[in-house]
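We close this part of the discussion by returning to an individual protein. In the encoding step, the backbone of a single protein was reduced to a row of integers, each denoting a local shape. The sequence in question and its structure tokens are set out directly beneath this paragraph.
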Amino acid sequence: MEKLPMTVDGFERLKQELSHLKKVERQAVIKAIADARALGDLSENAEYHAAREKQGFIEGRITELESKIARAEVIDISKLTGTTVKFGASVTLYDEDTEQETTYQIMGIDEADISKGLLSISSPLAKALIGKDIGDRVEVRTPNGSKGYEILKVIFK
């Protein structure tokens, strides 16, 4: 079974979402299904079909979250140090094409948000950076061709 690296905060968010789905959302959809059944003919009952569809989504998400939590490899970034890029590192890169600097933090799949500078560990850029040091150059294939980056800074916060 493949481990899923994630931060302590990311792990807690998944557990909270799972708890909310089980204790609140699941109960609400069960009630909605019961209320819709009470209205009679189920074949033309839009409320019933909508509630059943929502129930399927909730149960699917619960299964997905339980799997992710079971496979979680929780990493406390505050205990990491060094100049080598690894999970949790904030990496400042120099883009050789645009001559601009950008900083990304390498995070778990569910924690990634590129608009906030949070890069998924499974992204091509993160995969190219892992194991590299300050001053190293990496080449990343993109749909528009290869892009070159130089690692300027690596910090753990």
User: Anything to note?
Assistant: The helical segments are 8-38, 46-70, 124-129. Residues 4-75 form a domain with the Helix Hairpins fold (CATH 1.10.287.180). The longest strand covers residues 145-156. The chain has two domains: 4-75, 77-156.
